[in-house]
């Protein structure tokens, strides 16, 4: 991390780099080692920053890894519920009619609605 | 083309006044059907009316009349429609067509995206739990759809309340509530006067799902409490305003009834669950049926008038 991560290429948010690497891994058949990732990104990131990002994504549960030689090879975890769960935050995110497509259990409350609700439900709530 | 053509337009001004009473006083499943049908039928009837008015005016323009071998001269004598009215109708019709097409396109894409997301989501019994402290739960339409619940919501509710939550969301998916909402909004896209009907449908599908959850658990009070608890858990009210309201004794001066009239959907749902169950409302049902029949007949009568007009002005 730190200075080296910003070493080459334009400075970009970690999330963007993660998404970029995730997209690369999803396009690829099988797992990739950090060296292969660096190669395919065209030297945009240094080896050490790629290792850092891959390790972080592995810790988050976005990537699975298997030992290959002296390094680990990483692949996206697509069949894991945890992965779907993380993806869920983006469900229909930029759709204008998101709220009408997803039927929410409890809509948002205004402060007066919340107070009225507390009164309706009485003290046992 | 005298009165009949304006009847659907007039009814679409009046009908939305009935949306709230229908949503509040009629059994929610029937109310959803009536509101959705009203929005669709009135939306279609007003579009037909606008089209007829536009055509009736356009055949008075000699160049256009020549296209259909009609006599623009006779049309100017036989048809009472003002050219300005026809032009306005034509513009409104174009607007209605564009809005309806845009809404259909957007919704079809969103539903397809939702179905795709749902299909990609590994789930046990159609349930997906997301790791998120913010309490949230919703039904994601698809084939089959998914129920998505955050860990925050699961923590906010106890075991029996989880069953109520799932029964509610399952009702949305099995009864295809997203389709009712989409169709009601299609009518409202074609005729914005009908928007209150579409808004009422988004409320009655929640009531419908609440009553389904109540039927499957057999306890309406408990459903009311669960809905309220979930909404309050998701609500981050600044403690200060709550304290101030209670300290000033603002609440409870007026009756619940008055305050419910202006309240959002959640308190109204809870109040409806705490009150005795609603029955089918024969008067409102009959009134809705009469309005829809009148609108359909008006549009049909106007179409017939236009047909007669075209026969009269036909040169050949």
The stretches of 5 or more residues of chain B where confidence is low (pLDDT under 50) are 237-254
What is the radius of gyration of chain A? Answer: 21 Å
Please tell me how large the radius of gyration of chain B is.
25 Å
Gap from first CA to last CA of chain B: 22 Å
SSE class of chain B:
mainly alpha
Number of H- or I-type helical stretches of chain B: 15
| Global outline of chain B | elongated
**What is the count of helical runs of chain A?**
6
CATH structural class of chain A:
Mainly Alpha
Strand content of chain B: under 5%
Strand content of chain A: 5-15%
Order of helices and strands of chain A: HHHEEHHEH
Itemize the secondary structure elements and their pairings.
The complex is a heterodimer of chains A (125) and B (316).
Chain A: H1 14-27, H2 34-40, H3 47-59, E1 63-68, E2 71-76, H4 81-88, H5 98-101, E3 103-104, H6 111-121
Antiparallel strand pairs in A: 1-2
Helix pairs in contact in A: 2-3
Chain B: H1 7-14, H2 19-25, H3 28-58, H4 62-67, H5 72-78, H6 83-120, E1 127-130, E2 137-140, E3 146-150, H7 151-156, H8 159-174, H9 177-190, H10 195-217, H11 220-234, H12 239-248, H13 256-261, H14 265-274, H15 282-313
Parallel strand pairs in B: 1-3
Antiparallel strand pairs in B: 2-3
Helix pairs in contact in B: 1-3, 1-15, 2-3, 2-10, 3-6, 3-9, 3-10, 3-15, 5-15, 6-9, 8-10, 9-10, 10-11, 10-14, 11-14
Attribute tags:
heterodimer, A: 125 residues, mainly alpha, Arc Repressor Mutant, subunit A, two-stranded antiparallel ribbon, elongated, disordered N terminus, B: 316 residues, 3-stranded mixed β-sheet, 3 strands
Structure description:
The complex is a heterodimer of chains A (125) and B (316). In chain A, strand 1 and strand 2 form a beta hairpin. Chain A has one domain: Orthogonal Bundle (Arc Repressor Mutant, subunit A), CATH 1.10.10.10. The longest helix of chain A is centred in the N-terminal third of the chain and has 14 residues, at 14-27. Chain A has helices spanning 14-27, 34-40, 47-59, 81-88, 98-101, 111-121, and strands at 63-68, 71-76, 103-104. Chain A has 125 residues and is mainly alpha-helical. By secondary structure, chain B is mainly alpha-helical. Chain B has one domain (4-313). In chain B, 72% of the residues lie in helices and 4% in strands. Chain B has a 3-stranded mixed sheet with strand order 1-3-2. In chain B, a hairpin with a 5-residue loop joins strand 2 (137-140) and strand 3. Chain B is elongated. Chains A and B meet through helix 4, helix 5, strand 3 and helix 6 of A and helix 6, strand 1, strand 2, helix 8 and helix 9 of B.
